[in-house]
Amino acid sequence: MPDTIAPLSAIQTATATDQVFEALYHALITFGLPPGTKVSEAEIAKQLGVSRQPVRDAFFRLSQLGFLSIRPQRATLITKISEKGVHQAAFVRAALEAACIRDAVKHITEEDLAELSTLMARQKLATETGPRSVFHELDDLLHKRICEMSGHGYAWSLIQEQKAHIDRVRFLSLSFGQQDAYDQHVTIVAALAARDPDAAETCLRDHLSRIRNILPVVRAEHPQYFEDPDQ
Q1: What one-character-per-residue DSSP string does 92-136 give?
Q2: Are the CB atoms for 136 and 69 separated by under 8 Å?
Q3: Which residue in 12, 63, 117, 226 has the most C-beta neighbors within 10 A?
């Protein structure tokens, strides 16, 4: 297994699972642990410098999100990307975020808009300087904050439970689609600033629907990361 996950130092027992989860999640999203890789609790625990229990707990959480296939008496595998899973997650995500952004228009404050403006400046810098993982994190942060500003922050947790396959496609797409993603974020924030719920929802849905066009391009570039559609 590739040595791609940095050890964790001074880890606290109460937060060990969360820290292991975050380290593995980052490695999965950024393809430090690519689809098809075999992983073991013992090797991950040694690499991170923790006991096996938080790794076991993190593995379970990641399997619930669709990242791991845990099979008794057989190797645990990083799952391949499911096109069906991407489309299903995109449907759920669009429905939840569309409802959130309409309510965000009703509740957003000048302080919220100032925060979004700062966030967009950070995204612009990330498009110019990289790495891709920074923009990816800031992308998620924008969508999370819109959910929170709507008064429905819990919706983001529901979205995260659905979007494992989307996240990996999104990350790979940043090699060619990062600027487009940023430009669409600009239009979303502008619609929020204008307090226009119809425009905000339209901009958001247009943005999220990009995944339909991105998916075949990413699959053509990285076929080894995807499930066989005939299986």
Answers
A1: HHHHHHHHHHHHHHHH--HHHHHHHHHHHHHHHHHHHH--HHHHH
A2: no
A3: 226
Question: How far are the Cα atoms of 4, 95, 132, 137 from residue 205, in angstroms, in the given order?
Answer: 35, 9, 23, 20
CATH number of 83-225: 1.20.120.530
* DSSP characters over 52-70: HHHHHHHHHHHHHHTSEE-
Identify the DSSP state of 77.
Answer: E
Q: What is the pLDDT of residues 17-37, one digit of tens each?
A: 999 999 999 999 999 999 999
CATH architecture for segment(s) 13-78: Orthogonal Bundle (1.10)
Crossing angle for the helix pair 164-193 and 132-149, nearest 10 degrees? 60
Residue 216 one-letter amino acid = P
Tell me how far apart the alpha carbons of residues 93 and 145 are, in angstroms, rounded to a whole number. Answer: 15
Cα–Cα nearest to 159, from 65, 76, 230, 226 = 65
Q: CATH 1.10.10.10 in the chain, residues?
A: 13-78
Give, in order, the Cα–Cα distances in Å from 23 to each of 17, 58, 80: 10, 10, 19
